[in-house]
């Protein structure tokens, strides 16, 4: 019997260890963790406490970043869980084990007992084990074992990580790492060795990306250089003032001020002079730390982020120092547009007059060639003197007074960014008062060939029909204001493309020509985006499938449009289609009885389904609200030059332009279609979406 007992005892022990799935003797259950137990806050304890003792707390997951957690054995099967800050001197003496590399989670590992050897009894586990979000640490031995599924398992050790402390910064400082935003002060741990960097946003200072080298077991301190916004005085000088602009009486006076203003800007060489001034206050990108190559992925990512932040800071630098200049430029443009809406009549002395078979041919001109035109026709009633007398006296203003009536909107001819000359071309009628008798001219005007050839002039003389709009199969998009009408289906929305014909419009202070293109009537919906992109990483704040897609950065937005054979619209394409032939920046101000809320979703708690408000004249919905929309254009902090045909934005600049207001806009002023804003292409927001443009079906031409 003694022999049998000797045989069966180890056999059952082996079964208990080999076959069980819970391994309860080698684990710590929740009831084994005691709250409010205390241990001495000793020097060799790596968790920092506020008093002479550490007090155990309740288990809470997920574990906080920057905290270290001690699991200490109180006695027997009782354990305490002690969270706190990290003591750096103690931390560097710990032995580290990466949980993920060992196929464990923090929640799983917390409930395991760990041993210095696979030959130890269940109660002989390590009394002190430390945890954080990614690692398990031993303060005593370099190797650890645990039992899982009845078998001994060995933890694979790894190099000790480091810590990064962000402190000694002004209140309300935030920092961004990739898409995550944190408040300072903060401790990051664990941090893998290598280059660690973050972008800092300090109140009343320029944003800056700062990096630090992290080494094994060491604490690195990340403290960015703070550059106040008012570090450097820089001002562009111009003789033009807001008061001078407001006091102009005629279009010609405003144009002279505009030309003087542009000359001042060109003389100042804003881009070059401003960049040099900015470079004196903003640091350069740092060299890689010792042992790291410039081509290493960590450094490449840091350098790219630094340059993007530097570009953002430079834009901020220019905008703050050029705010007066920008405001003055906008004031000039507003004044010009206001005066160009007028129809005026003015007296002019003929350059020559001759008799023709059907009446007279009269040439008009001035020293600036602003009013260079030939009129051919007859007078009604006829001038009551012989034709020879009229011709002889035509240049005598005391006897003959010729009056031209024009739409006061001259064409501008450029030499680079400067306006070389301006020419009236919208001549409406001509009359003459001869010896106090008034006669109206009945005839036609002929412009000089070089003026007639201007595209703007041709568009005015030969207006094209309204753009053809592709109709949707269902008419539910035509009048979304009608109650009880079914919402458009996804299929209807995907076919809702407006075909925009070519045309001209005033864009950024200049008349530009646009080639034909197609553009989505609605903003892209969540359902369409999910169907095309299969993007599981984008999380939507609002989940209705017919709401506009949001939380999508510029790269993803453009990727969607490219996948459908289109692209994001240029800013000019977006604005041309959104304004629908209007000079105003709103859809409702010139329509009697219309209100902003009929066309725009704004001052709301969130976006609405696309096409919930009235469309513009070309059947485009939500251009004035719901979500703002990405465009293709790069943003440059200051530029006077606009291409005359199909403008494509700045050649420089890292940020991308977006247009239109959003559901968060507080006022109608934020919905102006001519306004623009910009952001880093990696930026995303629940107020920002997009729509796509496509090659013109009518013209068969590629996107410009």
Description of the molecule:
With 704 residues, the chain is an alpha+beta fold. It is 22% helix and 26% strand. The strands form 10 sheets. Strands 1, 3, 5, 6, 7, 8 and 9 form a 7-stranded mixed beta sheet that branches. Strands 19-23-26-27-22-21-20 form a 7-stranded antiparallel beta sheet, with helices on one face. It has a 4-stranded antiparallel beta sheet with strand order 14-13-16-17, covered by helices on one side. Helix 5 packs antiparallel against helix 8 (323-340). It contains 16 helices and 36 strands.
Short précis:
By secondary structure, this protein is an alpha+beta fold. The protein is about 20% helix and about 25% strand.
Spell out the blueprint of helices and strands:
Elements: H1 2-19, E1 33-34, E2 38-40, E3 47-48, E4 53-55, E5 68-75, E6 78-86, H2 88-91, E7 95-98, H3 106-110, E8 128-131, E9 135-138, E10 145-148, E11 151-154, E12 162-166, E13 174-177, E14 180-183, E15 186-191, E16 194-201, E17 208-214, E18 219-221, H4 242-246, H5 251-268, H6 270-279, H7 297-321, H8 323-340, E19 343-348, E20 350-356, E21 359-364, E22 373-380, H9 387-393, E23 400-407, E24 411-415, E25 418-423, E26 427-434, E27 437-446, H10 449-452, H11 455-461, H12 490-494, E28 497-500, E29 503-507, E30 510-514, E31 517-520, H13 526-533, H14 554-563, H15 571-579, H16 596-599, E32 628-634, E33 656-659, E34 677-679, E35 688-689, E36 693-694
Parallel strand pairs: 1-6, 12-18, 32-35
Antiparallel strand pairs: 2-4, 3-6, 5-6, 5-8, 7-9, 8-9, 10-11, 12-15, 13-14, 13-16, 16-17, 19-23, 20-21, 21-22, 22-27, 23-26, 24-25, 26-27, 28-31, 29-30, 31-36, 32-33, 33-34
Helix pairs in contact: 5-8, 7-8
């Amino acid at each position: 019997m003694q022999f049998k007992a000797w045989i069966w005892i180890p056999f059952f022990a082996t079964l208990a260890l080999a076959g069980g799935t819970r391994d309860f003797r080698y684990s710590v259950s929740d009831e084994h963790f005691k709250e409010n137990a205390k241990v001495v806050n000793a020097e060799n304890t790596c968790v920092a406490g506020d008093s002479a003792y550490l007090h155990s707390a309740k288990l809470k997951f997920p574990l906080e970043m920057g905290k270290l957690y001690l699991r200490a054995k109180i006695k027997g099967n009782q354990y305490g869980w002690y969270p706190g800050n990290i003591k750096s001197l103690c931390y560097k003496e710990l032995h580290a084990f990466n949980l993920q590399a060992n196929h464990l989670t923090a929640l799983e590992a917390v409930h395991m007992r760990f041993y210095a050897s696979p030959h130890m009894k269940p109660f002989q586990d390590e009394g002190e084990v430390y945890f954080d979000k990614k690692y398990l640490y031993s303060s005593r031995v370099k190797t650890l074992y645990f039992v899982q599924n009845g078998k001994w398992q060995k933890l694979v050790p790894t190099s000790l990580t480091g810590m990064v402390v962000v402190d000694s910064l002004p209140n309300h400082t935030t920092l961004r790492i990739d898409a995550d935003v944190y408040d300072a002060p903060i401790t990051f741990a664990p941090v893998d060795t290598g280059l660690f960097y973050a972008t800092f946003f300090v109140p009343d200072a320029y944003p800056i990306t700062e990096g630090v080298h992290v080494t094994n077991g060491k604490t690195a301190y990340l403290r960015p250089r703070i550059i106040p916004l008012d570090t450097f005085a820089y001002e562009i000088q111009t003789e033009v003032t807001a008061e001078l602009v407001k006091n102009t009486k005629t279009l010609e006076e405003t144009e002279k001020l505009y030309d003087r203003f542009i000359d001042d800007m060109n003389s100042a060489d804003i881009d070059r002079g401003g960049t040099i001034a900015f470079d004196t206050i903003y640091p350069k990108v740092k060299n890689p730390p010792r042992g790291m190559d410039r081509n290493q992925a960590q450094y490449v990512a840091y350098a790219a982020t630094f340059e993007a932040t530097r570009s953002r800071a430079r834009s901020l630098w220019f905008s703050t120092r050029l705010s007066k200049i920008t405001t003055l430029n906008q004031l000039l443009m507003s004044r010009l547009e206001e005066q160009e809406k007028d129809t005026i009549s003015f007296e002019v002395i003929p350059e020559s007059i001759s008799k023709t078979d059907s009446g007279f041919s009269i040439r008009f001109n001035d020293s600036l060639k602003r009013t260079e035109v030939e009129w051919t026709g007859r007078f009604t009633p006829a001038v009551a003197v012989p034709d020879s007398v009229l011709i002889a006296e035509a240049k005598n203003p005391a006897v003959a007074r010729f009056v031209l009536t024009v739409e006061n909107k001259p064409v501008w001819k450029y030499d680079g960014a400067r306006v070389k000359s301006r020419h009236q071309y919208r001549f409406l009628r001509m009359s003459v008062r001869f010896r106090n008798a008034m006669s109206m001219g009945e005839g036609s005007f002929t412009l000089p060939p070089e003026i007639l050839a201007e595209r703007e002039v041709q568009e005015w003389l030969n207006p094209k029909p309204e753009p053809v709009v592709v109709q949707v199969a269902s008419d539910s998009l035509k009048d979304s204001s009608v109650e009880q009408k079914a919402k458009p289906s996804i299929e209807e929305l995907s076919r809702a493309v407006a075909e925009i014909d070519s045309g001209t419009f005033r864009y950024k202070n200049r008349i530009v020509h646009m080639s034909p293109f197609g553009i989505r009537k609605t903003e892209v919906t969540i359902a369409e985006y999910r169907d095309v992109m299969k993007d599981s990483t984008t999380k939507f704040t609002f989940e209705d499938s017919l709401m506009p897609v949001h939380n999508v950065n510029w790269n993803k937005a453009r990727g969607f449009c490219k996948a459908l054979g289109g692209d994001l619209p240029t800013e000019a394409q977006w604005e041309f289609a959104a304004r629908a032939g209007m000079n105003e920046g709103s859809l409702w101000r010139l329509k009697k009885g219309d209100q902003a809320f009929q066309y725009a979703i704004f001052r709301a708690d969130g976006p609405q389904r696309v096409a919930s408000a009235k469309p513009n004249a070309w059947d485009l919905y939500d251009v004035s609200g719901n979500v703002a929309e990405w465009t293709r254009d790069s943003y440059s902090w200051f530029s006077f030059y606009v291409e005359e045909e199909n403008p494509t934005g700045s050649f420089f600049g890292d940020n991308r332009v977006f247009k239109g207001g959003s559901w968060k806009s507080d006022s109608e002023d934020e919905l102006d279609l001519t306004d623009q804003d910009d952001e880093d292409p990696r930026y995303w927001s629940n107020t920002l979406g997009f729509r796509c443009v496509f090659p013109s079906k009518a013209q068969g031409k590629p996107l410009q």
